[in-house]
Amino acid sequence: MRQAMRCVVVQEVFPDGLVAQDGRLQPGDQIIEVDGVDMTSATHQAVCQALRRPNSVLRLGVYRERIEAYRTSPHARHDDLNGTPVECTEQGMFRS
């Protein structure tokens, strides 16, 4: 039986902060690794402590769910929605 991940989810990125300037971390991202340490079972406090360590470079493993565009018909394309292209992110883990 597989155990569900319990991750810390990014709720907000402050517009004037370093994270916003970098642009890779987004609200909704799940932090699963900090500097090579698995955070999938860590408490919120443990993840915050890991993120606050004084490092010049922080390596994160992040899970971002793929967002599917709503389709009105089985043959609709992403750019068929009111003429506005919909950007979908890749599912999986990336390192920032």
Automatic annotation (TrEMBL):
<dbReference type="InterPro" id="IPR051342">
    <property type="entry name" value="PDZ_scaffold"/>
</dbReference>
<feature type="domain" description="PDZ">
    <location>
        <begin position="1"/>
        <end position="66"/>
    </location>
</feature>
<feature type="region of interest" description="Disordered">
    <location>
        <begin position="74"/>
        <end position="96"/>
    </location>
</feature>
<dbReference type="InterPro" id="IPR001478">
    <property type="entry name" value="PDZ"/>
</dbReference>
<dbReference type="Pfam" id="PF00595">
    <property type="entry name" value="PDZ"/>
</dbReference>
<dbReference type="InterPro" id="IPR036034">
    <property type="entry name" value="PDZ_sf"/>
</dbReference>
<protein>
    <submittedName>
        <fullName>E3 ubiquitin-protein ligase LNX</fullName>
    </submittedName>
</protein>
